[in-house]
């Protein structure tokens, strides 16, 4: 069986650890980082087909800018943005950059299941 790889990039250490545990329990090979630069480097190396991207990072860079850079590095990359920011300008820009899915940060088991469904669809679409 092909390894199901997932990169979680989020400056929120609690959310990052919870999502990592959830997906490891779902039989994913998970790598995590708080650094947008590290995540982009992994994308440049074409090592990650799927990224769950948070809305804050060690560096002071907006998620929309990270998405644009990732998209330029790998047009086939599946990006799932996990963010509580739902401003119209932000949503319009990230959709134009071609994210796969936008979800609110998981706060319950139901939220985790929604995120897992999105990840499963992204894996199948790859």
From TrEMBL:
Keywords: Phosphoprotein. InterPro entries: Bact_response_regulator, CheY-like_superfamily, Sig_transdc_resp-reg_receiver. Residues 5-120 form the Response regulatory domain. The keyword Phosphoprotein applies. It comes from the Bacteria. The modification 4-aspartylphosphate is found at residue 55. The keyword Chaperone does not apply. One of its GO terms (biological process) is phosphorelay signal transduction system. This is Response regulator receiver domain-containing protein.
């Amino acid at each position: 069986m092909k390894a199901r790889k997932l990169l979680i990039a989020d400056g929120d250490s609690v959310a990052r650890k919870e999502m990592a545990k959830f997906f490891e329990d779902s039989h994913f090979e998970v790598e995590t980082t708080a650094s947008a630069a590290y995540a982009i480097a992994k994308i440049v190396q074409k090592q990650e087909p799927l990224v769950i991207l948070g809305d804050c990072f060690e560096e002071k860079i907006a998620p929309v800018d990270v998405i644009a850079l990732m998209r330029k590095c790998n047009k086939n990359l599946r990006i799932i943005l996990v963010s509580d920011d739902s401003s119209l300008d932000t949503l319009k820009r990230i959709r134009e950059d071609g994210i796969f899915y936008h979800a609110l940060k998981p706060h319950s088991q139901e939220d985790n299941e929604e995120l897992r469904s999105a990840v499963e669809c992204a894996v199948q679409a790859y």
